[in-house]
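Lecture 7 notes: from sequence to structure.
We start with the chain below.
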Amino acid sequence: MYQRFAPRIAAMAPLGALTWLLFASVAHAEDGESYGPGRYPAEPGTFALRIEPGLAIPLNSPQAHLFDVGGGESVKALFAINPYWDLGPSVAFLALPAADSVSEAGTAWTFGGSVRLKRPHHLGEDTFSAVSPWIDVDALYVRTAELNRPGFAAAVGLAVPLDDDRSFWLGPFVRYLQIIQGTPAGFDNSDARVLSVGLSLEVGPRVKREMRTVAADVTASTAVPATVPCPDRDRDGIPDSIDRCPDVVGPLDSFGCRPYAKLIVKPDKLELKEKLYFGWDQATLQEESYPVLDEVVQALKENPQFRVQVEGHSSSDGTDEHNQSLSSRRADAVVAYLVSHGIDKARLASKGFASSTPNDTNATAAGRENNRRVEFVVYFTILGDGAKSQ
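Predicted structure tokens for the same chain:
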């Protein structure tokens, strides 16, 4: 018995080693590992396709006695949540040949969702230092013969870039699959466990980079281009060309902006996490709105290149004339609050839109409540070094 299962047990040894390597490399990256010259992290929503063929090895009885080593293939469509995490659907097929002439071959289809933790693809300066260990987990619906059963899978692997753009990645993987039997059906009444070993190919967009060149002194008949570093006014390691807050030190995950508790700095707006409250059918700000607006003031003072248009929106309740007047007066009230707290009025504008640009349906009370809002649209004006907030 030991001789039969020893090779399968040994095949699982890479699971522990690769898992340790992944978390060690992620911890090293979070401790301040520099990314390659001109390479930037993947933005949320970046798509990648993974194709993973491999050998399939049954690990337990009765499958290990009924089937020989077979093969399988999985396909995953993954979308980036941030540079470390991917999420998306997966589908896989397994085929195990019969161990003797009496038994029938075994097949399984799996469908589900996959979440993957990986070392970000923009790290490292060359092929060796860019190697990306990863680990993923799948929750699965499994179809075997006439049976429908739940299952799960866990895998570890390494991805090595095949080109300088880092669009293609290839590397080994080891995946453990468990098909849960549930209520015994009179046969094959134990969970099936299968180990897959193979190669993982990932295809995705190239890792973005930016290189700037200037002409060096002419020492011969031609000018020699020289690479110069990208400007980084706040010296937070994020070039001004992608730093949404180039005068404030901020982490890479928030694209150079300092995280705020009640708002998010986006490329085109300051998005509030909480609503602003006014008196019923009035343009008078209520005290519950002050902490949110105080963070807007702080963000504007820390980012003097921001010019903001405050937009007031209403639901469809009431007449168009009344809603237009109310939304304009509420936008003006927000501008007045910002000015009273030290923001130069020249950096601010206000406009009322009534109910012309709803965020939600006006057919329900909840939708109408969502449509009553104030938005801060940002117009970026790049100031020189040493600009002061007003």
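Points to note: Confidence is low (pLDDT under 50) at residues 1-15, 17-36, 378-390. The domain at 261-380 is CATH 3.30.1330.60 (60s Ribosomal Protein L30; Chain: A;).
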